[in-house]
Design brief:
The complex is a heterotrimer of chains A (about 425), B (about 350) and C (about 280).
Chain A: H1 16-23, H2 33-37, H3 41-48, H4 52-66, E1 71-72, H5 73-79, E2 84-85, H6 90-95, E3 100-101, E4 105-109, H7 116-128, E5 139-144, H8 151-161, H9 170-181, E6 183-187, H10 191-207, E7 210-216, H11 218-225, H12 229-233, H13 238-260, E8 264-268, E9 270-273, E10 297-300, H14 303-309, E11 312-318, H15 326-335, E12 341-347, E13 355-361, E14 364-367, H16 370-384, H17 387-395, H18 405-421
Parallel strand pairs in A: 4-8, 4-11, 5-6, 5-7, 7-8
Antiparallel strand pairs in A: 2-3, 9-10, 11-12, 12-13, 13-14
Helix pairs in contact in A: 3-4, 10-13
Chain B: H1 13-21, H2 27-31, H3 35-42, H4 46-57, E1 63-65, H5 66-75, H6 84-89, E2 100-105, H7 111-121, E3 134-139, H8 146-163, H9 174-179, E4 181-185, H10 189-205, E5 209-215, H11 218-221, H12 228-248, E6 252-257, E7 259-264, E8 274-279, H13 282-286, E9 291-298, E10 301-308, E11 316-322, E12 325-328, H14 334-344
Parallel strand pairs in B: 2-6, 2-9, 3-4, 3-5, 5-6
Antiparallel strand pairs in B: 7-8, 9-10, 10-11, 11-12
Helix pairs in contact in B: 3-4, 7-8, 10-12
Chain C: H1 12-17, E1 27-32, H2 38-52, E2 57-62, H3 69-78, H4 83-87, H5 92-97, E3 99-103, H6 107-122, E4 134-140, H7 142-146, H8 156-175, E5 178-183, E6 185-187, E7 202-204, H9 207-211, E8 216-222, H10 224-228, H11 230-233, E9 236-240, E10 245-249, E11 253-260, E12 268-274, E13 277-280, H12 281-284
Parallel strand pairs in C: 1-5, 1-8, 2-3, 2-4, 4-5
Antiparallel strand pairs in C: 6-7, 8-11, 9-10, 11-12, 12-13
Helix pairs in contact in C: 6-8
Classes of the chains: A alpha/beta (about 425), B alpha/beta (about 350), C alpha/beta (about 280).
């Protein structure tokens, strides 16, 4: 890693005798700072026959050499002015005080078809936009392990979201070309390869002015390579190995994120486990579903060790309404589109644990805002004059026939809230 | 002092052997010589001989009585967590100074935010019964976000302004608060060890530093270690250094630790293998901190449980984390409902 | 040796295991998992010794800054075990003055301090001798100062450990002082062979060479069920002692004798921590 430096480069230089003594350290010669700091002062004194002061001095000098500087928070704030990448989901951006944070890892967790890749594509597209349009005007490095990257989809999203900028005319096509050419996809097939790639990525990032690093997905490779580690061998062995690989990758990603001041987005799958059979402790995370709900529990894959390594974790899920009777569902169906999904911030140093709702449209991921939807519907109903009244009433078989439309809706909303939060 | 064996002195091996060969058994034998004699007799430099003789003369360690210790303890001003229940749990006024306090918690428990809150609270001025110090934040996970720290600082200053009785100048200035939190981002465990090794110089330059936060101690030590015994040794050495700093500079050392899943293989046919969530870094690390608090969720409420303390009872309290930082848990479910209403304009 | 010389730890069951308590002239080790009450036991022994005789003194060598004078004061003032002593006119100030604390953070500091102590004990006639009548020396904790030093690449750490123990033992024998050393625990896979419980997954730290150093080795563990499912076993119980009602969190802990030069090995008892006390079953009923 970065701070492992050869001791011979220490300035002013260590004496030849000192270097020789350090080299003669039994079993593992001390050549680098890393090796120096994995020895205690007593070991240096005893094994290399240093004076106590000398040993202390060597360690201190080497320490000063590699130690990162202290920065006051005030300086940190003036250094980076826009340390967030706006996601275009208003609620999420607000909660995260601006979007995906720079210099740290953000993880998107969700089952298949929950829109993780869609969000990644949307983010990639946004990153390539010029700064005047809220983008970052830089390249994207998209590490694809599941072969889920879809360039056609990317273009569809771009065209639908910014029909003017990516228009059918010549300029629009040029913009489109520019966008697609600055998104670099890398296919990777094994976790070893991924670790290696991450080591080599520095050059690539500088060359292509990468402003966003995406790994889609971090979990699939190791999960394929180390299937069911717990059941097979219990503690130790493969599970340790897997965690070790993951932690290494995490610290490499962190290093890249921090040194280049770019956001890193990784995706992860979910696992379901049966409540009664679960051997894993359940308090790892705030339960996403309410505890009284039946059925298997859904949590992020890769376990607890990995979960510690990400700075922000966002859970994406299909929208569930708890304990629905069919009747009420029809009412809600009216108010909420069927493809509604929910997105929850589970871990973040910035945001509270909030949930927002979104749908996957042609424009990529679009936030679903309740009030806007009502307005839309209102408009539609006004246009259709008498018709809609009857139509909605049909679906509503319970008492509320006499109530006027607005009242009923607020009732529904209230019930909905109580269902959600009770 | 006189009966102490020469072999137990802090010397390099070759000198030690030379002394023993020359017949110096105990410190008493050494006391009768002069530096020149010693250097000539066993063939070491004058400087080194002087060094040996100085080592046996100096006598720094003295004891104090418990009543003096009590007075010293009472002089130290603990750092409030802004959550009254948690302060109570930690002995009335917050995180103790002069000791190592470790918070362990699963991801998303608000460890980093708690750290930021402490960094701000350590600066509460003395006339508002705060420690009026500065803070060091060592970030190993890259999760320190300046904007969030600023948010917490603003909220805390506002709260103090509301409560302050005197209408004179504001108790804390935002810019000053932000400039007194020193952040260092370390990227691997060598850097962390190196940083601790040179920290005493930084502490001497900044004598007002009263809080040292390491978020988290576990991250770098959980990877790339094949030799577990070495890891234990390094960690214990680190802890001992931190202890020394905590005492000699009157620091509150706050460490954050991760939780890990531990499998308990029962080995019996009728018992299922179990797994439990335990603080990371293993059994031997658990001895190093003076106070240990575990943070966890229970029924959608954040709980903090004091599991280890030499002076306090085991207790569990609730807390919450909102946009203003760490706060007492308020038992109204309306809170979340209101949020929903705000968000959706109902 | 007279029975009265033995210093009680303040916990009946543990005294039984130790055949009366901490014996002067011996080195007793208490090791155990985190949060099993090692330091509490040390505090309890400190106060019991101080209150047993108005001349007794206790020396507490603190290497991990666990000593809390506030806690000692609360224990003395609130625990009814010391009512008797308070009646006899032992004041808070007097008690606190007879406890000496030395803060040492490395092994050399501890050695210097102990040599200094020996000098003081040798010259008893000094006027300001704060160390005469020291009955008990506590080192909390031994593991913290030695575990960074013990490695396979060098033997000096081990030899320092042996030297220090020898010094302590000599001191204990010469001046009839009981020495209490607190040690940590490390994981032991698959289980601890010395323990009588097959479920014990940890053992005292500091390695094999240390095991032969102390005269008595006590080992504290949490009760096993507790480890797995904490919450089920926490019940709030009320214990009625002479006058006060004390709330006890029923988290049983086990104390067993791992090694003993003169007592029976393998004996064990269950004890609880609560309020300001350590209880064994006999105390509760």
């Amino acid at each position: 890693m970065s701070s492992t430096r050869k001791l011979t480069r220490l300035n002013p230089k260590l004496g030849k005798k000192t270097i020789y003594k350090l080299n003669s350290f039994p079993r593992t010669p001390v050549n680098t700072t890393k090796e120096l700091f994995s020895r205690t002062e007593l070991e240096l004194v005893e094994c290399c026959n240093f004076k106590v002061e000398t040993a202390r001095n060597i360690q201190k000098r080497a320490a000063k050499w590699i130690v990162p500087e202290f920065v006051s928070v005030l300086d940190m704030m003036t250094e980076n002015n826009s340390p967030f990448l706006a996601t275009s989901l208003k609620g999420l951006d607000e909660a995260l005080s601006g979007g995906i944070p720079f210099s740290s890892i953000t993880e998107l967790v969700g089952p298949t078809r929950s829109g993780k890749t869609q969000l990644c594509l949307t983010l990639s597209m946004l990153t390539t936009l010029p700064e005047t349009m809220g983008g970052l005007g830089g390249g994207v490095c998209y590490i694809d392990t599941e072969r889920s990257f879809n360039a056609d989809r990317l273009i569809v999203i771009a065209e639908n979201r910014f029909p003017q900028y990516f228009g059918k005319d010549e300029r629009g096509q040029a913009n489109l070309d520019k966008m697609t050419s600055s998104i670099h996809k890398m296919d990777i097939t094994s976790s070893k390869e991924l670790t290696k790639r991450l080591d080599e990525l520095q050059e690539f990032i500088i060359e292509n002015d990468v402003k966003l690093l995406i790994v889609d997905s971090i979990g699939s490779l190791v999960r394929k390579e180390y299937q069911n580690p717990v059941k097979k061998c219990g503690w130790g062995g493969p599970l340790m190995e897997r965690n070790d690989i993951l932690l290494q990758q995490a610290s490499k990603l962190k290093y890249l994120a921090e040194s280049f001041r770019i956001p890193v987005v990784v995706t992860n799958q979910v696992i379901t486990r049966n409540r009664s059979e679960t051997v894993l402790p359940r308090e790892c995370f705030r339960p996403i579903k309410k505890s009284r709900e039946e059925g298997p529990e859904v949590t992020a894959a890769l376990g607890n060790t990995w979960a510690h390594s990400v700075t922000t974790r966002i859970m994406m899920n299909k929208f569930h309404i708890r304990n629905l009777s069919n009747l009420k569902f029809t009412i809600l169906n009216d108010l909420f589109p069927p493809n509604l999904q929910e997105l929850t911030i589970v871990k973040s140093p910035i945001a509270a644990n909030i949930t927002i709702y979104y749908t996957i449209e042609n424009e990529g991921i679009v936030e679903f805002v309740y009030s806007e939807n009502i307005e839309k519907e209102d408009k539609r109903q006004q246009e259709e004059e008498i018709g809609p009244m009857e139509e909605t009433d049909k679906s509503d078989a319970v008492p509320s026939q006499s109530l006027d439309k607005k009242k009923r809706k607020s009732d529904v909303a209230e019930w909905f809230i109580s269902a959600l939060w009770a | 002092m006189s009966a102490r064996l020469v072999s137990s002195l802090n010397l390099r091996p070759s000198t030690r052997t030379k002394l023993q060969k020359a017949g110096f058994q105990t410190v008493k034998d050494l006391q009768e010589t002069t530096p020149i004699e010693l250097s000539k007799e066993i063939g070491i430099s004058n400087n080194e001989a002087l060094n040996i003789l100085q080592q046996i003369k100096k006598n720094k360690v003295t004891s104090i009585s418990a009543s003096e210790a009590l007075q010293q303890e009472r002089k130290l001003c603990p750092i409030s967590t802004s959550c009254e229940a948690m302060d109570q749990m930690l002995g009335g006024r917050g995180v103790p100074v002069g000791k190592i306090t470790e918070f362990c918690g699963a991801p998303g428990m608000g460890k980093t935010q708690l750290g930021m809150q402490l960094c701000v609270n350590v600066q509460i001025p003395q006339n508002l019964s705060g420690p009026e110090g500065e803070a060091i934040f060592i970030d190993t996970e890259g999760s320190f976000i300046a904007q969030r720290a600023a948010e917490i600082a603003r909220a805390t200053i506002n709260k103090l302004n509301e409560n302050s009785v005197t209408e004179c100048d504001p108790p804390m200035n935002f810019d000053i608060v932000m400039s007194k939190i020193y952040v260092s981002k370390v990227h691997n465990c060598d850097e962390l060890i190196a940083l601790i090794k040179v920290l005493d110089e930084f502490l001497q330059e900044h004598p007002r530093v009263k809080l040292l936060v390491i978020d988290s101690i576990a991250f770098h030590f959980r990877q790339q270690f094949d030799d577990m015994a070495l890891r234990t040794r390094l960690l214990n050495g680190l802890a001992q250094d931190l202890n020394k700093f905590a005492q000699s500079y009157e620091l509150a050392v706050v460490l954050f630790n991760q939780m890990t899943t531990k499998f308990i293989i029962s080995g019996k046919y009728n018992l299922k293998d179990q797994a439990a969530l335990v603080p990371a870094l293993g059994e031997s690390w658990g001895h190093q901190c003076t106070n240990r608090i575990v943070l966890y969720w229970r029924n959608e409420i954040r709980c903090a449980q004091l599991v280890k303390s030499p002076s306090l009872q085991e207790t569990t309290v609730h807390y919450q984390i909102n946009s203003t930082g760490v706060r007492d848990y308020q038992a109204d479910s309306l809170n979340s409902k209101r949020r929903w209403e705000e968000l959706y304009d109902i | 040796m007279l029975q009265t010389d033995v210093l009680s730890t303040g916990c009946y069951g543990i005294d039984e295991l130790l055949q009366g308590g901490l014996h002067p002239g011996e080195v007793t080790e208490i090791s155990g998992e985190t949060a099993t009450g090692k330091t509490q036991l040390a505090f309890s022994a400190t106060l019991t010794t101080i209150c047993a005789n108005k001349n007794n003194k206790v020396l507490f060598i603190d290497t991990v800054s666990t000593f809390s004078a506030e806690r000692i004061r609360t224990l003395f003032l609130e625990s009814d075990r010391f009512d008797h002593s308070r009646c006899q006119g032992m004041g808070e100030e007097d008690v606190m003055n007879r406890i000496r604390i030395a803060k040492c953070f490395d092994v050399y500091a501890v050695m210097e301090f102990i040599e200094d102590l020996r000098d003081h004990l040798e010259n008893k006639d000094k006027d300001d001798n704060v160390y005469t009548n020291v009955k008990l020396i506590i080192i909390d904790s031994f593991a913290a100062i030695f575990s960074p030093l013990l490695g396979v690449t060098q033997t000096q750490g081990h030899s320092l450990m042996i030297t220090l123990t020898r010094i302590l033992r000599n001191l204990a024998k010469e001046y009839n002082i009981a020495v209490l050393v607190i040690n940590a625990a490390i994981a032991s896979n698959p289980n601890n062979p010395i323990s009588v419980f097959s479920s014990t997954k940890s053992k005292p730290s500091l390695g094999m060479s240390w095991t032969f150093m102390p005269d008595v080795q006590l080992y504290l563990t949490h009760c096993v069920e507790n480890k797995i499912e904490n919450e089920k076993n926490i019940q709030q119980n009320y214990v009625y002692t002479n006058r006060k009602e004390i709330e006890v969190i029923m988290k049983p802990k086990i104390c067993e004798v791992h090694r003993s030069r003169n007592g029976q090995m393998g004996k064990w008892c269950i004890f609880y921590m609560g309020g300001n006390e350590l209880f064994t079953h006999d105390d509760i009923i």
